[in-house]
Amino acid sequence: MNTVDILEILQRRALVDKNLRRRFLATRKEEKPVAAFCEVCRELGYPLYEMDLISAGEDFYAAMRRSTNGGGENSPLLEGEDDFYELFFAAIEK
Questions:
Q1: Each residue of 13-50: pLDDT tens digit?
Q2: pLDDT class for 67, splitting at 50, 70, 90?
Q3: Backbone conformation region of residue 45, classed left if phi is above 0, alpha if psi is from -120 to 50, else beta
Q4: Phi, psi for residue 44 in degrees, rounded to 5
């Protein structure tokens, strides 16, 4: 199971379980919010670390970049990279 799979599972769980949703949202107020978020994930049995979140976004962006016009210097500029951590919270904050 990769990082995106884990985040999708946890997102679905948080949308159903209000206590879990509150717990995830509370991590954003911590001094180190990403570390706190990952700690909750690990407590729930999902081995997720800060570098996993960073790597997932960068890997996704790199794959998209390679898929456009051969991925060379002439590839069109893509609007940033997906930040799966922020996308997770955007989905559960509704």
A1: 999 999 999 999 999 999 999 999 999 999 999 999 99
A2: low
A3: left
A4: -85, 0
The whole-model pTM stands at 0.76
Phi-psi region of 46 (alpha: psi -120 to 50; beta: other; left: phi over 0): beta
**Widest Cα–Cα separation across the chain:** 48
32 contacts: CB under 8 Å, gap ≥ 6 = none
Residue 54: per-residue pLDDT: 84
Residues in CB range of 47: below 8 A, 6 or more apart: 41
The angle that helices 3-16 and 50-67 make with each other, rounded to 10 degrees, is: 120
**DSSP labels, 21-72:** HHHHHHHTTSSSHHHHHHHHHHHTT----HHHHHHHHHHHHHHHHHHSGGGS
- Can you give the pLDDT at residue 68? 60
Quickly tell me which residue has 């790597």 as its tokens.
Answer: 55
